[in-house]
Structures are given as C-alpha cells and as structure tokens.
Amino acid sequence: MAKKASYIKVRLESEAGTGYRYYAKRSTKAEYKLRKKKYDPWAVNEETGKRGMHVWFVEKKMPPAKKN
After folding, report:
1. pTM given for the model
2. Topology of the domain covering 7-60
3. How many helices (H) and strands (E) does the chain have?
C-alpha cells in the first residue's frame, strides 16, 4: 500500500504589491519556495492603464492560527 504524500498549506502573495493572495499546497519535501504566475485582478497594467493582469506570486509564511 502506498504512503500518502504530506503537504503543507502556503500563502502566495502578489509581487505587484496589491496585497492580493492565493492559497495553495506544496510538498513538505520540496527544497524550494513556490513561485507561480497567476491572475491578479487589482494589478494595474502600465501600458494600458487597466486593472487585471498576470503577475508573479511568491510563497510567504502563513499567519498563525487563531486560538479561542
């Protein structure tokens, strides 16, 4: 029987500086930080002046969990 892969939840923040985020999973065995190109609806395209474009998102630490 195969072992189940272990994953951790990570936060991807926009490099455009808009504060837009995505959440994703990645393997705990990975020795690199996740970096994906995804759609940011708040990023402003400098050429056209319109909102919404694809930008790089980089992995950041997850905020601490709330305790009641």
Report:
1. 0.81
2. Rubrerythrin, domain 2 (2.20.28)
3. 0, 4
